[in-house]
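Schema walk-through. Below, the input block comes first and the output block second. Nothing else is stored per chain. Lengths vary across the set, and this one has 587 residues.
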Amino acid sequence: MCGIAGLILSSGAAPPDPSMLSKLIGALHHRGPDGSGHAMMGRVALLHNRLAIIDLVTGDQPFFTGPATLVANGEVYNYRELRDSLPGVNFATNSDCEPPLHLWLRDGADYAKHLRGMYGIAIHERVRRTVTLSRDPFGIKPLYIATIDSGLAFASEPQALLEAGLAKRQVRPAAVEELLQLQFTTGADTIFEGIQRVLPGETITCSDGHILERRQINPVPAAPPEDIDEDTAMRRLDEALMESVDLHQRSDVPYGMFLSGGIDSATLITLMARLNEQPVLAFTAGFDAPGATDERDQAAAIARAVGARHEAIEVSEKMVWQHLPEIVAAMDDPTMDYAIIPSWFLARRARQDVKVVLTGEGGDEIFGGYKRYRQATLPWWRGGRTMWADGSFDKVPVLRTQPTSWRDGMAAAEIRAAEGGRSALGAAQALDMTDWLPHDLLLKLDRCMMAHAVEGRTPFLDPGVMAAAFRLPDAMKLRRGMGKWILRKWLEKNQPAAQPFAPKSGFTVPVGAWIKAQGTRLGPLVAAQPGIAEIAHPDKVEALFRDIRRWRHGFACWKLLFYALWHRRHILALPPSGDVWETLSTQ
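--- output ---
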């Protein structure tokens, strides 16, 4: 895991400014504190900060082979197999990121089809004068690109482009509407004017400061459910899960996992216990708020059943108010998912013992776990609902302008998701994998983990698991009002202590209760922020914070608080200055 950045300038541009390059890569130091490297080739610059995970001795980047140079952020889990598939190649290192460079020399822009992992990669070819940018098909690792006066710039995080002065600290109003209504933004355009995401699975070829070609790998099968019996499906699933977890454990540094009381992480720890002779190290977060869902006891029971070492942390209200400005500052490409709070604290704790953590992201999307999937498959007269149809501020009238086009990106994604003969359930899952997964859950995971230089790995988001699970019959995903039916059956057989068919209350963070307790104090501070004054009526914001009567009121307050802190850091360029109260009070 690392941070990468670079410039691809036009032939008439001046050479890259060293001081600007220093700012660009310096802003990504937290992603790779173990070393840095760079390559300057005419008007192309490749920059790299390293978090050393595999090949600790010879794995420093950039890599050079013949006319090509590579920098990469991520892990290529099938690197050993790729080496075997490249006879006659003399590898200079044992790194997982060197085989992609040789694959590119052999296959050109099609090289990414052979990679199994998470990555953002940049490859410069000196003879053809091209730069190839690639992002993994699930969008686990980030990569951003910006058009500048002299060509193109790219980086692992938008904030690096902002810090280097390569993009303006200016929001797109349409993206702000999306963010407030959905809690994340869709598509290629970010919330920042002039900065775009390299989309999941995209490979972009650039030359002379321009984009020449785009191609994309879609990891989601565009086909109807297959005809398969349950015994065959179970055997195939077991093989795919075992192989994926085994690959995701390839590491030259200590690793652990995040354990909740849920199905996905219970599946992972069961598989890890099979594969490891030593006890697995598992981390769980809980909360001190009365009535809050707390999964620590259930997680501890699962850990005992597999012989794991279990470390539980308690996230208190005091901790949240103290560190929330730092947490929000890490979310430069913003997601208002309140799960950023426990994720950030878990990563901080995990870093004391490990540099790699396996997590359960992707399980709900691949196996059909969300309640909204059940609703999406029903006709309207039986309670069916369109996913992502309601915005958070539809019934909370505090904004200066009521959002009207905030759902355009989601509507376009719905059309694409329905292609290929997918069932209604498959289309709903594909829709979530287009935007919700990469632009909310995985973005949250990347930023919270990298804030503490910890690598987050997602074994469910693997081509083998996708092939084994996504096209299963709908009844193997949804049955008797429960999602993830086949995964529950697998867990019932392999780890009954997880109680996979017991009612689950779901994972929540008690931000509403915390904000309600401090609403009178918080309201005036939030309402006074320049970012909030631009989008909302300050008097209505104060009133909302004073009188939180329903869940949607508390959630709207959370989003306004998040946006106030985010706008200060990433638009006004004001760093956090203490806890929430001190930061919001500083002009």
